[in-house]
Task: inverse folding
């Protein structure tokens, strides 16, 4: 099985919900979630302990969405539309302009110019900062991607499309969590609101 980066399914480092910044091992599975997506992986290592109460909630949610007998598993139903440029970095994936001086390299104050200390007057960051809005992809991650009657954000579409032998069970209800499965695990993904 190809190596899956389970950390990508967890909450980011700057997320307040510290308990889900790392995956958690429970039984034969490792669980990871960021509140929008929840996935579990067989034969994986985990780094953090989740509270029993939270784990119960996760398992109930998982069972409710994936335990239904009526699920119709489908392959290749997620078609990525042409990407839209990330408006934050203009599609560059990185932020080269210095944040402090907006790329000017200096500040005007009264009759004088002062060199920007952050970039030493260059106006550019060296090395450039990875764009936090698109995580360096240069693409708008919140672009809507159709899945059956629902829509999901492009960043999650790309995340699950990278899973081996992905199958998705599209819902008839556009607000319900969308079940998916792959070699070595399964999960659910919350659709975008209308
Ligand atoms: Zn600067
Ligand atoms: Zn960007």
Result:
């Amino acid at each position: 099985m190809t190596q899956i980066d389970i950390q990508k399914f967890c909450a980011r480092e700057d997320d307040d919900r510290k308990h889900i910044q790392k995956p958690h091992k429970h039984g034969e599975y490792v669980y990871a979630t960021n509140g929008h997506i929840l996935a579990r992986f067989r034969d994986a290592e985990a780094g953090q302990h989740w509270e029993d109460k939270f784990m119960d909630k996760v398992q109930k949610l998982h069972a409710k969405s994936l335990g239904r007998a009526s699920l119709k598993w489908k392959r290749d139903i997620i078609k990525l539309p042409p990407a839209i440029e990330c408006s934050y970095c203009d599609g560059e994936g990185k932020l080269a302009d210095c944040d402090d001086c907006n790329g000017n390299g200096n500040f005007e104050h009264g009759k004088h110019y002062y060199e920007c200390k952050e970039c030493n007057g260059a106006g550019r960051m060296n090395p450039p900062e990875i764009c936090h809005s698109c995580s360096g992809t240069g693409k708008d991650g919140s672009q809507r991607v159709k899945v059956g009657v629902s829509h999901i954000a492009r960043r999650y579409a790309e995340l699950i499309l990278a899973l081996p032998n992905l199958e998705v069970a599209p819902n008839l209800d556009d607000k319900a969590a969308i079940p998916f499965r792959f070699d070595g695990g399964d999960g659910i993904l919350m659709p975008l609101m209308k």
